[in-house]
Design goal:
It is a single chain. By secondary structure, this protein is mostly helical. It has one domain. The protein contains 1 helix and no strands. It has one helix at residues 3-34. The radius of gyration is 15 Å and the shape is rod-shaped. The N and C termini lie far apart (52 Å).
């Protein structure tokens, strides 16, 4: 059972992906409003 060892890694990946999505959404909003 390696689940307990993999949990922090998957949680970190989830946080990173959410941050990336937030950055992409912010950039798209800036481009839409700026353009």
């Amino acid at each position: 059972m390696r689940l307990k060892q993999d949990l922090p890694y998957t949680r970190t990946l989830l946080v990173i992906s959410i941050l990336l999505l937030a950055v992409v959404a912010a950039v798209m909003l800036l481009v839409m409003y700026g353009g």
